[in-house]
Amino acid sequence: MLDRGFRERLDDLLSGLAETRVRTDGGRPPAVVVPDSSADRPYFVWRDREEELRGIARRVCRGVTADGRPPAAAAVVVQRPLPYLYLAPSAFDAAALPVSPGDALPLAVEPYAAAVDLVLAFAASGFGRGPTMELLRSPHFRFETDGPPPAAGAVRALDRALAEMRFSGGMDLLSGSAADWAAETETRRAAAGALRCVLALAGELRPLREPRPLAAQLETLRSFLQRHAAPLDAGEPGGRAGEGRALVWQGLEALDAAYRSLDDAGREVDVVDVTSVVRRWIESRTRPAGAPVEGVHLIDVQAAVYGRFDDVFVAGLVETEWPGRTTRNVFYPAGLLAGLGWPRERDRLRASRAAFRDLLGLADERVWLSTFVLEDDAVVAASPLLEDLDGLIAERVPAPACDPAGAPGDRLRPPGDAGVGRRWRALRVGRTNGSRAGGARASGRAGRQPARAYTVSALERYAGCPFQYFASHALGLEVERASEQTMTPEQRGLFLHRVFESFFRDWQRAGRGAVTLATLDAALERFEAAAEDALGALPPIDRAVARGWLLGSAASPGLAERVFVAEIERQTGVVERLLEYRIDGRFELGSPPARRTVAIRGVVDRIDLHADRTLRVIDYKASRPPDPSRALQLPVYARCAERQLRAERGEHFRVTEALYVAFGDPRLQVSVPGGDVAAAIAEGEARVVALVEAIEAGEYPPRPVDRLRCMTCSFPTVCRKEHVEDA
User: Fold this and answer.
1) DSSP output for 262-313
2) Is the pLDDT of residue 179 over 50?
3) pTM of the full predicted structure?
């Protein structure tokens, strides 16, 4: 207590205070239970908060069964209660243990409160793509506007269609063309029904965007929620979902009545003010946590010091919460505040460490410390407070990380088939302990797979991370497209491909060969015509930027001029250009004894055929060229094009050059490493053979070439993050 800053405050208030230290016999300090494992650390490590709570529940359950200790003799102490308040009931219920949170649950954590926020965000965004998709997919609503609710496939098709047109909001842009969608592309035809539903919902909520009295706005919102509410589960009509919904509806009705009696008739508000009022009301309300029970206490650090418990579980010891964070003052510097009596950062850290030491002595018998490694699929670090434990622990009691499923001390009551529940718990526990429970399958091995035709991009994805390949190509999971106001890198690359393909087709149709100094002006003029045709299809927000990018300005040359000048410098006699050349066939790749036939398909951006029976393979990149140690496109396309042309034309063209035209690289044209095309092709063939062997062996472990790829991975919710390193 004194080390938390209380001693300094006493000196400030009572100057000249005499101090006498009295040594007392406080009894034996509690033992700290440590993992019985090879890892030399005095705390338990779990996968996430939920698994951490389940492990604690098993420990308490064992104490109740073996020692007859009541559940109320144990306390779970956390720094931030909110994540644990709604995880604890399910975790402790599985162990047949009551839990006493000691407080009501915030209404804001109820799923239906989030559903109300979806409706408000849908209206506030101008009915933008992101909020629209979230609203249509919410299980709390059933939208029967002009028939049955839109199917999941129609919603996905609408998402793709809106992403393709980079729709950011404004139903007026879509309402006029809704009738035409049924006769347009396949994606739009599939999305036509979902679009009609969205237009109807937007019409119902359009009054929220117009200035009106607040009471009328609340009535519109409440009517929308009640009209489109999904039916409750017949098995538990009065369960948590029904209670949360009823509380929100009653609150909106009370707000409506209050503002009708008190609101100024001349004051009108729009959806922004409505959102503020509704959110503020929800954030200030709680829902009952249930009847008081004598169960395991779930309390925060401030309340823990006033309790007396046999066992104390200090949970959630991660860097972001222990020590607790403080909000810096944006108006006054730290030096000025320190002079006014505000605590300095070092004083705050010292107080946090003192409070942590107090927790280690709080229990009558045992203290358990635990942390976790994943928070919302992101890796988190352990608290720095755990680094000081060696000098603070008086007695250590080793214990296994958790009991095996079905052990006498568990007393678990899984729903349904108890055997299935035990096997699942054993699997989870085994993985938490660092072992690979489940053998090969848990390590990412799916068994032998049939041979198939491979695209080069798919092979590169497998080389980057086998699990990404598995999720995308084996499971067929779709990547959600983020809403972008401007062209994404993928769209920019496709646009560049179209423009250069159109130019070179026209140039070749006119009987032209290589671009020379004499034909440079004509090439630029023809390219400008092709570019203007393509620019006309872009939204106005992208058109001016793309024009300057392609054609340049008085300050800098455009991409076209840079590409043509680079071609002039190479002085190659091009007799024919193969544009968007399709590779599709079975090719022998590799060298004995690893030689094998592989089915390859793909599209080469450009192949230049020269008069001396040589060819050059060119691949366009919108930004920079890929890492040559992982790139496969140039060597594979070069070998396959060479052999496919021989089969199609009966002529042998020899590959002498393979390069990337990287529009975002200052070098523009980037050849294979060292310029040795033959060596690059041989190495690429060997890598393809090895990758195909691994794919067909069913090896799909989460093994990214760079852990930073996990930060931008499209499949974080299906990956266990149990990285498998190369042997």
Assistant:
1) HS-TT--B-HHHHHHHHHHHHHT-EE---S--S-EEEEEHHHHTT---SEEE
2) yes
3) 0.55
